[in-house]
Amino acid sequence: MASDLELSDFLKNAEKKAFKRAYYHVRDEEAALDIVQDSMIKLCTNYADKPLTEIPLLFQRILSNTVLDWFRRRKTRSALFLNRDDFEIDENPGYFESIDILKGDTDLPSHQSAEIWVSRMQTVAQIEKAVMNLPARQREAFLLRYWEELDVSETAAVMGCSEGSVKTHCSRAILALSKTLSEQGMNP
Length: 188
Known about the structure:
Shape: globular
Order of helices and strands: HHHHHHH
Mean pLDDT: 83
Strand content: under 5%
Oligomer: single chain
Number of domains: 2
Number of helices: 7
Distance between the termini: 42 Å
Helix content: 55-70%
Largest sheet: none
Number of strands: 0
């Protein structure tokens, strides 16, 4: 059984990656924050009695299911109701920070010029956009395998599919990312 401190430490360490993963799926910062918060609450409420070794996979599965629930609710809501906000144009979209390149993310290292730093941030933004444009299952498999560093069997358990499907989704995601980034002049 995980102690309160261990569970709290796990959630602090998982929070940023979970947000990025949810954001890549829903493309809405507020919704991604809500999804992560709901996932964390579900984990603490329903699975706090599980061993610490089981918590990471449980959390990933809960996060995946919460994202799917968000899409289902959104689909139902949009089928039943029209929102006045749907007809307004957002002139000031929210700011979203790119993937942290270094620890202390926005600090400009003294040994690095501003030009190099800006170039790296632009490259990261291009990669993030390419990942966000992947089909949902490919994106999920790619993020679980290479962002969350889960092995194939763990990824299959979280996604609820076979290991072969995970390998196929990852392979297709890598090919699509490679093609997209090569077209943009990067050598992945």
